[in-house]
Fold this protein.
Amino acid sequence: MKRGRGLGFWGATALVVGNIIGSSIFMLPAVLAPFGANALIAWAVSITGATCLAFVYAQLALHLPAGAGSHGHVKILLGDDAAWLGSWGYLLSVWTANAAITVAGVSYCLSVVPGLERWSFGPEALGLLVITLLLAANLRALGGSVQIVSTLLKLIPFLLVITFGFWLVIDKGDAAFDGMSQRAIAWEPALASVGITLFALLGLESAAVQARAVRDPNTIVPRATIAGLLLAGFVSIAVTCIVAYMMPVAQVTNSSAPIADFIGRFIGGGAGLLVAVFAAISCFGTLNGCLLVGGELTAAMASSDGLPKRLTERSERGTPIVGLVSCALVSMIFLLLAFSRRGAAAFEFVALLSTTTSLVFFVICTLAALQAWLSGRLPKTRGTLFACLGALVFSMVALYSAGLESALWGVACIAAGHAWRWVSLARRSASR
């Protein structure tokens, strides 16, 4: 791609905001509501840690070669093995995030067509159909148009929720929070919810990962990363807390579409139905972007060995055909695995798994930044050092909070990828 045709500041910022907001916000209230005020502590921890991570990505983009992206930066600083391992963890997070986003989108479709849930394999079939249609759109290089339209539409329900929530606070005061969970504040539930709130902020790395597609990446990527995180963080926290704390905890916890139920409860069933439509569009729009990111990353990893070379094949339009298809197929597998559970439980499972695998990427990028700081490639300031250490500590805390089940699944997936790479490299060596 010619540098002049790349994303500018607003385009890169929209990429960050769109990937963060669309990842989980629609199901997050149902998952966090039982934690009560502990979720606020989790949000504070996640925002602080995510800001440290964003600062690390910004520094790497500002002081290392333009357009190299996170994979290239790690490769320069820590070598091929570390770069591949970090990218593999990130690719795993994309696959599992695709499943989580699809679960959320399908849940909102059930609000529009409630009878679908009574059909055997109905929700699963709808999720598979959506992934297939978006795959077809990306194969025809129509993914960009889908992304623009869905990004514009997704803002509508969020503005409604925030406006109505503030109006309730002004009108009712503390009484607006009468239905909120009264669970006592403690470290155990607070840490338990950190993994979920971090998942809501995944996507902050989007501009850094896609630096090759950004115009003047040394300048735009750092600014877009910080601005996108701050804007998306505000929207995510406001919407999540309004819905989770202003509805009865039992109702929001058992809801498959909490934001739609919130609007429907206070404004009317028609408005709730409208929000459900916008929410489904937003989820599937983000899924569209994640499929494209996953396809591009798959092709990039294959081009640097470790994955079959066939995954690098592109169409005449430059679309990574085989990479996109493989990303869609693996996402479908994780989707079916998620649907072995239902509702918020299905979403929580794939969300925590995505968080666990993405933390591998975060940790390796942070270690690369520390190496750059020690070698003088990054400014030897206290702020840079504290940001790196803060990002590293935060990643460890988030990994612990994700729980044993997610950690075991993450280890198994990463080990499988490492074994795959080892076999692939061994075969290539033997054929030479």
Remarks:
- The domain at 3-423 is CATH 1.20.1740.10 (Amino acid/polyamine transporter I).
- The chain is about 75% helix and 0% strand.
